[in-house]
Amino acid sequence: MRGVLRGLVSTTSHMTVVDLEAGLEHLSRGTARHVDTLLLVAEPYFKSLEATQRSFVLAKDLGIDRIQMVANKIRSSRDEETVRQFAGRHSVTVAGVVPFDPAVVEADERGAAVMDQQPDATSVIAVRQLADQLLSAS
Amino acid sequence: MKIAIGGKGGSGKTTIAGTLARVLAERGQQVVALDDDSNPNLAVTLGLPHGQAASLPAIPRDWLEEKPDGEGGTRLELKVPAEDFIARFGQPVAQNLTLLVMGQPDHGGSG
User: Fold this and answer.
1) Which pLDDT band holds residue B111 (cuts at 50, 70, 90)?
2) What is the number of structural domains in chain B?
3) Interface contact A30-B83, CB threshold 8 A
4) Which domains does chain A show, CATH number per domain?
5) From the CA of A134, how many Å to the nearest CA of chain B?
């Protein structure tokens, strides 16, 4: 049945935003092959970047047009630089840089959307910029 | 545009997916948010109250048809247009924004 739904990503005229299975080893048999844009969310530490690197290879094999990174939970300019250097080494664009944001932690605790709790939270502003970047490039 | 968001567990991918879907819908895009995670949490980050996200009910048999899969077997495909399916089974979240939860993974790696 999931196969049926995955096919829907290709055929609908809607814009789709798919939250993939956690972990990146599922990419090749999953929904990712039906998309044109893959955003890989990475945190600025070695294990996260290493996992992202493996998924670049898988994603390129799938022929996805646009493979970009989103840096998340960024606490400092050094964190951002770590992700940017990694992306540069792998010739991948950083589509967005989302700061570490206590508002996200609070919203998680309440089981609510951070956008509803704090519409002007720094992470929400960063995702707005990400959206604009994606829309302007598409 | 068909966007997928991937990452390790704990990377914050679901928060980013939910917020991005909301923002794109606000920008006037018609958006379907699809939860493909076997531990589905996208609904919460989209702003649906806890427990309100429904997994998809069984899809009516007459909405599906068997098609050759090109490897000697068959696979199920939707017989109805995707938009009809979304209108019937999608869960409205906000203006321009509909959620579909894929639910449990298929058995036997056929997903």
Assistant:
1) very low
2) 1
3) no
4) 13-100 (3.40.50.300), 101-138 (no CATH)
5) 9
